[in-house]
Design brief:
This protein is an alpha+beta fold. The chain is built from 1 helix and 3 strands, in the order βββα. The chain has one domain: Double Stranded RNA Binding Domain.
């Protein structure tokens, strides 16, 4: 988590909003004071920053999962392509050997 000083804070005397950015977008965490409690800017900052950090962590995790899935898809597509090309190369070698054998037969019959 970023140090508490890294967030920007806004307040109206009853709630504190911590603001940061992730992936170019603004992320906010809000701490509201219960009407029965005494407002504390420091506690509000801490709570708002923690909520903002959790939102950012969730966004980061979701992006990481998405990117991991994209990488897995690319890997499986590459694996399938490699399998096809391996079969293709094997078939090409077999065709080459068959052609060499056929040529040898034709030459032997002459």
């Amino acid at each position: 988590m970023y140090p508490i000083e890294k967030y920007r804070y806004y307040t109206n005397g009853q709630r504190v909003i911590a603001v940061s950015t992730y992936a170019g977008k603004t992320v906010r965490g809000v701490a509201a004071c219960d009407p029965n409690d005494t407002f504390s800017m420091e506690k509000g900052k801490e709570l708002a920053a923690a909520r903002c950090a959790l939102k950012i962590a969730n966004k980061r995790l979701n992006r990481a999962i998405r990117k991991e899935n994209e990488a897995n898809d690319a890997f499986y597509q590459a694996q399938r392509h490699l399998d096809k090309m391996t079969t293709y190369a094997s078939d090409a070698w077999d065709a080459k050997y068959d052609a060499e054998d056929y040529l040898a037969e034709v030459l032997a019959d002459m």
